[in-house]
Amino acid sequence: MKNSEFVKHLNQYYPLSEETIQDLLNICSEEYYHKNDLLLESGSMARYYYFVKSGLIGYYTVDELGNNIYKIFFEENSFAASTAAIIKNEPSDFNIIALEDCSVIQYPAKAYRELLEKHHDLALFHLCYLEKNWVVKKEPLEVSLKYETAKKRYLQLLENTSLYNRLKQHHIASYLGITPTQLSRIRKEIN
């Protein structure tokens, strides 16, 4: 696992020392989840961070009517977790589900947080990661959800063909905050 995509991705955010990498790899395990397995169930404590080696993971909540509302999808080489639940040490409001068979590198949040205090470079990695993914990437998403039409958001999703082609239509509709019928109308309009 030493020269894995995982280590490569960590180093893309901030270069880590050999000692830091070794300490981190010592708390990691590789886990497999089958399609539709929950990595985390809403109402449970979020105990792990995940790095997606293969497969597709979805992050959703359930509305009052029992519909799954997808917030984000994680493809290969991305980090996934119920970050807010980990930070607040509260049960997660979200479910994390394998939308395909998945292989992940899983590491316990508690042990990882201890490593953040021990290794300055890991803390800087974490800071850079959060800035890039939870501030820089998330802000335009929130603005688009508030001000852009479902059609425009659909066209933006279409640009990410690798993700788009892996999603079922009900996942796309849920992510856009519309019904499958509304999605059909948008798709007809575009074609």
Automatic annotation (TrEMBL):
Gene3D superfamilies for this protein: Jelly Rolls
Highest taxon above the source species: Bacteria
Domain Cyclic nucleotide-binding: 12-116
Pfam families xrefs: cNMP_binding (PF00027)
InterPro entries: cNMP-bd_dom, cNMP-bd_dom_sf, RmlC-like_jellyroll
Protein name: Crp/Fnr family transcriptional regulator
